[in-house]
Every structure is written in C-alpha cells, then in structure tokens.
Records
---
Amino acid sequence: MTYDQFIASTSDTHPNEEYNPLLKALWYDAKDDWEHAHDIAQDIHSSEGAWIHAYLHRKEGDLSNARYWYRLAGKNEFKGELKNEWEQIVKTLIENDINS
C-alpha cells in the first residue's frame, strides 16, 4: 500500500479490514474520531503505538501526557503541525511495513 492509497481510503465508511491496528488508529483520527483512535492506540504495546498515543494526546492538548508517550516511543516531542506529524507517522508505518 502507498501513502496515497491510505489517504484515499479515508473517504471510505470503514477502514480496510487488512489495516493493522496502528493504521486503523490513524485512519479513525483522520475521520475526526479521536475516541476510537485513542481506544485502539492504548491497546498497542509497541514504540509505534506509543508514538501514535503521544500524537493523539498532543492533538487533545494534554501535553504532559503526550510527553510521557513520546518518551515511551523513544521520540523527541514533535513541535510542528499536527497534520505533519500524522503524515510522518503514516509514511513511516507504510514505508517500514510495520504491523502490530
């Protein structure tokens, strides 16, 4: 799958069944369903899951919680725009074919 294919899928009603939980969380976030995205992310126990969790708490405005998750992910706190971080996470997952 490519990044453009993933973006195109966000116009669908439901995420692709073949998406791993990491991509499903980001898919729901793209659909403005923060709660569903967070529910999925909090059940992913990997550095990638922690990164998504950090991003979601940063989006929520809970920066202290976001910093905790960035530390667990082994990432520096992202200082740019939310859309840029979302894009970076999605591209990293797709390029590295990361499954959770």
---
Amino acid sequence: MATGKQVFYPRTAREGTLEFVRVEADEPWTVGWGGVPEPTGSVRLTAAPDRFVVFVPGVAFDVRGGRLGRGKGGYDRFLAALGSQATVVGLAYEFQIVDEVPTETWDQRVDFIVTESRLICCRDRRQQLSLS
C-alpha cells in the first residue's frame, strides 16, 4: 500500500481457529463459517508488527472492555497469543453496549469500543468521547 500499512482480514481455519490474510484489491472472497465473507488470499499474518491494531466484532460489549463473541473463542485465542502487542478495538452499535458482559478467565478485553455515536476508552472508564 502507498502508506506502508498492511490490512489483514480474518478467515476461519481448522476447528474454528482464526488466521489473518492480506487482501489485494483484485482477490475474490468466499463464504465462510456462519455465512460471513472471508478472504481467499495466500499471504498470512505470521508475526505481529511493532504497532498493531485489531478490530474485533462482538454480539455485546460493556464499558469495561468485556466482549461477548459468537462462542467459538477464535478472537480470544488470537488476542491472547498477541499479549500486549496490540491495541484492540471493538466495533459496535450503541444498542450492543450493555451494563455487563459475563466473562471467563480466558476472555480477552478490548481497549476501546467505537459506536456510531462515541468512542469508549475501556482502559479508563472515565474517558468517553462523543462522536457527534
């Protein structure tokens, strides 16, 4: 890319694990687990760069960074392997922000949540920025 940044998208690998694949503009996509489009590229992310941002989906989030996924644990395993190398951003609509998401010890928290109306800093519950 002209900016030197690379973008990788998730693809379901064996037994629900995730791998991240670089996407070129002309590469086709295929339908993956749960009917979600997945990249077909061959260049996989093998090591995290120095500065790394991971955008994660979720069914629900809380302002402390709790995330409820779809039950396979793929993002939790991936994020645990990264350790503190990545900044993790949850992408959500306001209606997906709830009082509390039930979590287990293996669940990985997000650092920030972006909704259509605000940016929530989960590292410090007091920092919330309005996007309107």
